[in-house]
Amino acid sequence: MAKSGRPIKAVARHDLSETMDKEEMIRLKEMHLAPYIQLATSLIGKRRRSGGNMFRHQIDTMGTLMDYGYIDSVLLKASLVHDILEDIPDFDRDKLVDLDEEGGEVFKLVLEVTRRPVEKKEDFLTRILEFGSPQALILKSADRISNMISLGYTIDVAFIQRYADETEKYIYPIAERANHAMYVELQELVSTRRSFLAQCFEI
């Protein structure tokens, strides 16, 4: 549920420009996302396998959520810093909690999608599926969509194979619960990576 008590809802991506009404635009304007964007800049130095850095990935994940029609302040704020606890081990968590009046809720959501040091990857993803809040399922699905798109910029065949397999086994069920359209997009993205792998092996 959003802070206002309304259920988190999304619209079809291709309808977003038509359905984002004045009320939603006002809500977006009043979210004060800038402090979270500033906090996320601490990830600029964290490089990604496919190029770019983790700061750009946070912004892209937020864009994916908005593309699907999610105009929820806690969800969007969390998307901007969703990797900060995992990628900056000594990060001062109070900086997030005290950032604004929603900092505590944002921190809880970020914590849900943060892999714990003792967790294997499969246990981490299973935890989100079995115990994650609706917001966590949505955020993880958007995160993986961004990651799968970035996968198109790497030529590490073993990594692509492993990541596609992981997405099918662990992320598909999460996306099915979160948003069927996200699930369909992930299927399409995995299919493109499978096609790339097939071409590699043909060569």
Could you describe the 3D structure shown?
There is one protein chain. By secondary structure, the protein is mainly alpha-helical. It contains twelve helices and no strands. It has a single domain (13-202), classed as Hypothetical protein af1432. The protein has helices at 16-19, 22-29, 34-40, 54-67, 73-80, 84-87, 93-97, 103-112, 121-131, 134-150, 157-178, 180-202. Helix 5 crosses helix 8 (103-112) and helix 10 (134-150) packs antiparallel against helix 11 (157-178). Residues 1-6 and 11-17 have low confidence and may be disordered.
* Low-pLDDT stretches: 1-6, 11-17
What spatial form do the alpha-carbon principal axes imply?
globular
The residue-averaged pLDDT reads 89
CATH homologous superfamily heading:
Hypothetical protein af1432
Helical proportion? Answer: 55-70%
Count helical runs. Answer: 12
Number of domains: 1
Sheet/helix structural class: mainly alpha
What is the number of E strands?
Answer: 0
Q: What's the Cα radius of gyration? A: 17 Å
In the CATH classification, which architecture applies? Orthogonal Bundle
CATH class value: Mainly Alpha
Termini, distance in Å? 50 Å
- The percent range for strand residues is under 5%
What's the short version?
The protein is mainly α and 203 residues long. Helix content is 66%, strand content 0%. The N and C termini lie far apart (50 Å).
